[in-house]
Amino acid sequence: MENVGVDMNLLWSRIYDVIIKSFLSIEPHVLGQMKKQQGGAGLKNNCFELLGFDVLIDSDLKPWLMEVNLSPSLATDSPLDLKIKSSLFVDTLNLVGIRKFDRRRDNIAKMKKRANNIMRAKSYQSRQGNA
User: Fold this and answer.
1) Residue 78 carries which DSSP code?
2) Residue 48's domain spans which residues?
3) How far is the first Cα of the chain from the last one, in angstroms, to the nearest whole number?
4) Is the residue at 28 inside a domain?
């Protein structure tokens, strides 16, 4: 589209505007459901939802929201589909703060903690024996 003179920054800005307005229209409902699920215990950052926005762009380059898919399919049917959806998945996990789990580092940390606990216990026992 850039090759034919379309201002892509403007187009994306318009698409983002449509998406933001759709979120604003459902915010009270979403907050109500979150409070209901948490028993009114206050809002916590412990959930997320992946939504799929279908946006149609008309001949005047105006975006129109067609539908919002709750839990869109992440199935892949082509190499391009795999590339797009795997990037989406990685971005989603990064946004919600999930970090790569390093089993080796976790095991080393557990072993160090156990060794420290053993050393503390031995130190405590030796102090009790001297008392």
Assistant:
1) S
2) 2-72
3) 83
4) yes
Domain count for the chain: 1
Residue 131 forms part of a structural domain: no
Which residue from 50, 36, 32, 46 is spatially nearest to 89, judged by alpha carbons? 50
Token pair for 47: 């959930």
Residue 12 falls inside a structural domain: yes
- pLDDT tens digits, one per residue of 71-110: 788 889 999 999 999 999 889 888 888 877 788 888 898 9
User: Minimal CA–CA distance to 46: which of 97, 90, 92?
Assistant: 97
Q: Has residue 117 been placed in a domain? A: no
Tell me the three state secondary structure of residue 35. helix
Q: What is the Cα–Cα distance from 102 to 99, expressed in whole angstroms?
A: 9
pTM of the predicted model over 0.70 = no
CA 11 → CA 54, 77, 90, distances in Å? 15, 28, 25
SS3 assignment, position 70: strand
Rounded to whole angstroms, the Cα distance separating 26 from 30 reads 6
Residues with Cβ within 8 Å of residue 19, at least 6 apart in sequence: 53, 55, 65
Give the position of tokens 């009114």. 40
